[in-house]
Design brief:
By secondary structure, this protein is of the alpha/beta class. It contains 15 helices and eleven strands. It has helices at about 15-30, 85-95, 110-115, 130-135, 160-175, 175-185, 200-205, 210-225, 230-240, 240-250, 255-275, 280-285, 290-300, 305-310, 325-330, and strands at about 5-10, 35-40, 50, 55, 60, 70-75, 100-105, 120-125, 140, 150, 155. Strands 5-2-1-6-7-11-10 form a seven-stranded mixed sheet, sandwiched between helices. It has a two-stranded antiparallel ribbon with strand order 3-4. It has a two-stranded parallel ribbon with strand order 8-9. α9 packs across α10 and α11 packs antiparallel against α12. The longest helix is centred in the C-terminal third of the chain and has 18 residues, at about 255-275.
Length: about 325
């Protein structure tokens, strides 16, 4: 088996988990039969100090690297608050022609953008900094909700643990779903976190309700989506009129009660499909009543049917990967 060289370009202030998380995925792959050679380099060749104050030794200066299969640029808090060091962007530009694929973790996307490598590309980053990336680099098509994005050999991921998801997806591309599944099981992590999924589930994308009555309603719906949750029944539950409950939802969450219930049920159905349940089981358990209702809402919201979603997200690959040559050949086998 050919050795696959993975190089991490490290720098002072990097977030340690952006390096150690993906590195552990590759190391676990080696334990299970793969051959990844991990290499750590800094622009100067000097050791660096991470976000938690630990000293990280390196193997070489960036200029000494050649023939890299995967180049990984981690993130760091200083990348969005201070000018990015020219030595760091220069190292990325120098190494990019020698790498078969380029990867950034979290705010590492700002380094790629500053180096001019994301121009005209789709990309993502930590949700907190997605708007800043879009404003600072208007020629980059920022996808703020994606866990990770691949565009023409450049992979960018969202915050922190999304880098682990991306590394698992890269291993799946290299060695297939069986090895990726074994790694996920060994590291006690989810397999079903494809890049096309949102960084957050529906409850986390909404502000926490301040009003006790509204908080009670949202908690009940989130915990038991299969119950009968009409606006009238929910209003009776918390002792307010349906009109007042609707006003509370619109004022605090910017959504009607019925749309909130639909979003929660949708998230629950997606989780059930991810876990391997069939469409009928997922529709019933999520409170949709019939597979046809679930299908109609899936097509309206996602543009695909529940069955297509279940088949597509049985791996770590997103919809954009469907046309990837390796994904096509693997899925047809």
């Amino acid at each position: 088996m050919t050795v696959h060289r993975v190089a991490f370009l490290v720098f002072d202030g990097l977030k340690l988990l952006d390096v150690s998380g993906p590195a552990e995925v590759f190391a676990e792959a080696n334990r299970l039969g793969a051959r990844y050679a991990l290499h750590y380099a800094s622009p100067s060749g000097d050791p660096v100090v991470t976000s938690i104050g630990t000293r990280l030794s390196v193997h070489s200066a960036a200029a000494d690297l050649r023939d890299i299969e995967t180049l990984v640029v981690p993130g760091g808090d200083l990348l969005v608050t201070e000018p990015i060091p020219p030595a760091l962007t220069g190292a990325v530009r120098q190494l990019h022609p020698h790498a078969h694929r380029l990867v950034s973790i979290c705010t590492g996307s700002f380094v790629l953008a500053a180096a001019g490598l994301l121009s005209g590309h789709r990309a993502t980053t930590h949700w907190r900094h997605a708007q800043l990336l879009a404003r600072a680099y208007p020629d980059v098509s920022v996808e703020p909700n994606s866990l990770f994005v691949e565009d023409r050999g450049i992979f960018t991921s969202a915050g922190v643990t999304a880098g682990i998801d991306l590394a698992l997806s890269l291993v799946e591309r290299d060695h297939g779903a069986d090895l990726a599944r074994d790694i996920a099981r060994s590291l006690v992590m989810f397999m079903q976190r494809p890049g096309g999924q949102s960084q957050f589930s529906a409850p986390l994308t909404l502000n926490a309700p301040r009003t006790p009555a509204l908080r009670a309603v949202t908690e009940l719906v989130s915990a038991q989506p299969a119950l009968e949750h009409s606006t009238d029944s929910l209003a009776v539950l918390v002792g307010v009129s349906p009109r007042h409950l609707t006003r509370l939802f619109n004022a605090e969450l910017g959504i009607t009660p019925s749309k909130f219930v639909e979003r929660i049920r949708m998230e629950h159905a997606k989780a059930l499909l991810d876990a391997g349940h069939n469409v009928a089981q997922s529709a019933r358990a999520a409170g949709f009543g019939s597979p046809e209702t679930l299908r109609r809402i899936f097509v309206a919201r996602l543009g695909i049917s529940p069955g297509q979603y279940r088949a597509r997200f049985a791996t770590t690959h997103s919809d954009a990967d469907a046309h990837h040559p390796q994904a096509t050949s693997k899925n047809s086998s």
